Amino acid sequence: MSETVTRQRPGGPGSGHDGRWNVIVLNDNHNTFEGVALALSRTIPGVSYERGLAFADAIHHGGLAIVWSGHRELAEHYWDALRDAGLTMAPLEQA
User: Is 21 in contact with 75 (CB distance < 8 Å)?
Assistant: First the structure.
């Protein structure tokens, strides 16, 4: 008699690899376009100052922008760093 064993795949809840998470910056009345662009370019790899300005424009006109999406652990790291830089953050959101 054989027994079927079900194995859990890595990436389930609580593993830190449970799908993609969005880092969302909200519009506010105290950060300048330049300040947002600088914080994003210093925090998120691959975001240049110019790309940060484009994000700032999207945040200003749309009220928010998803500035990064990926694994939860990195999302938490970027979220904390951007909040610490003074940006107004939405709660992390699973994509």
Answer: yes
